[in-house]
């Protein structure tokens, strides 16, 4: 036992020496202190934010913005392409706050601060016109007296039929516009490709005059008011669109309707009566009878007016009369020579000259008030209508559609031969331009300046009456009560 105790005592002492050597401290240290005075790393954070402008130094990216606005992924790629100093930048370090015109503004987040405005080039994706102009049939286009639609008309109609089209990004040449088609090309920026567009044209637009009966005459006064006769009534329009029925009923068929140079309106009927609506009448619907024929065949078939506002009347019996200024008529001699019957057309040609076409198709003239005699140059033809044109030239048309003209003096001379133009129902000359208009069947034919005639589209039924206003606009009335206008387009 004693020996065991000695061994344990020895081990205890040895252990105490070892502990003391390992626990050696500085002489100044407090052995009872718990403070760790050894050096260690400072784990506190005091990170300084980086300005985006310090790493994004090139802001004009020189990259085309195609289609939709770029998102953060695209913007980041574009920034790094131009700015190697931003190679550590991530999508989580910024956000887009504004897009305007060709600029995109971003702001820093997380460890970045500040704003940077990036410049892009913007370009719209080019689109084939065939994918935009889907409706290639424009339908009917009103062109008035023009031969084809104007450029702006074409653009308007294309846009109307294809609302998504940017009309400023297409090209159309006037030479590419025909009477039925137009070629449209892209501008090369927004649109590419070529499209052929089709349409039909109409020279007349129908005015909803609500007349309803066969129109026999049209006249226009010095103020531009339009008067139309139909089945015993006269209708008046002050705007060319809206007509009102004037209260007077003329009991029988109206055979003549003319205006003088101060705005008086004259009406004749088939029982030999003539009425006047004075330009200064208090009652705008009032007509007053100013004369009546006395002979037994007293139906008035045509009337005309001269520059002094003298009224002339042709009758079913083939006579021509001059109104005497009161209530009666004075016969102009010579009109009963030969076998005259019914004056179909009567016009005043200036300088006191009268011209008449009778039922037999003969033209007779009274020069400066002299007796009527057959006009030189008219033998062998059957004439149906007369009209006064520019410079008081007298025009006449035959039953075959051939046009004759008499200038100041001399005979009638044939101007043109309109092949196949028969059943002529009306004739009108534009006194300013000299253009000739012929009504027949269900169409109106127009001269093109070379004594050739082309049909105008948009009319139906037989054209009984034609008139032209001071602006060159053409009006037509047909046997079904339709009233039409063809605008003179400049």
The CATH homologous superfamily of the largest domain: TolB, C-terminal domain
Provide the β-strand percentage band.
35-45%
Q: What is the level-2 CATH architecture name of the largest domain?
A: 6 Propeller
Biggest β-sheet description: 4 strands, mixed
- Tell me the number of strands: 40
Q: Spans with pLDDT under 50 lasting ≥5 residues?
A: 1-45
Overall outline: elongated
Overall mean pLDDT stands at: 85
Going across the biggest sheet, name each strand in turn. 2-6-4-3
- Binned, the helix content reads under 10%
Give the count of structural domains. 3
Derived from helix and strand composition plus strand pairing, the structural class reads: mainly beta
Number of helical stretches of at least 4 residues: 4
- Return the CATH topology of the largest domain: Neuraminidase
**Rg value:** 49 Å
- Regarding CATH, which class of the largest domain? Mainly Beta
Alpha carbon gap, first and last residue: 143 Å
